[in-house]
Structure prediction request, 224 residues.
Amino acid sequence: MSVESFFNGILLTVVGLLPIANPFSTAPLFISLTADMEPKDRARQALMGCLYAFGILVVFLVLGSAIIRFFGISVPGIRVAGGLIISTIGFRMLFPKPQAQVGAVRAANAASDAKTDIAFTPIAMPSLAGPGSISVVLGGAAQIRAEYAETYGFIYISVIIGMAITLGIAYLVLRASSSMVRFLGRTGIDAMTRIFGFLLICMGMQFLLTGIDDFYHILPSAAG
Prediction:
């Protein structure tokens, strides 16, 4: 394996994965969910979210095919599950609890609210390491094993480095987005939360429909 192929693997991973992970679309969700957090807690959530996403993608790169075969999971199934998760989060953002209820329980839940962890769900999964990103990783893993049967271990290293670079970019985007909180204020955050809640529902439904469509398209080939 040449040095050129190694760096090409890194570049292709970043170029292929970054638009799918799309941290810029995750940034508004991150702002909405961390508006009440202290800056250090917000920074920690951004870091942990990117680390979780990196771990998820590495696991699916190395063990994805074995996991899917063992549990009998298909990529359409992953898409449907991701769509349901995204839609659930979107409904909660679009239809929050009535303000009176929020005010009544805010003091009682202050301690638990401060410890709310949104790093794994929904920041890491299904936002950064969602069905699309996992699909790209699984497809890349299959291609690596097919084309680089003898040196696929080195190719995996280059892909993992590309993933790290991609999620490093995602971390910088999330950290920068948190500075918008002080400009938007409570009213702006509430409006953005509802708008992006609706968009998340739309995205979730699209994942769901795409997964169902993909499932019915693979049925004939599976039957044959």
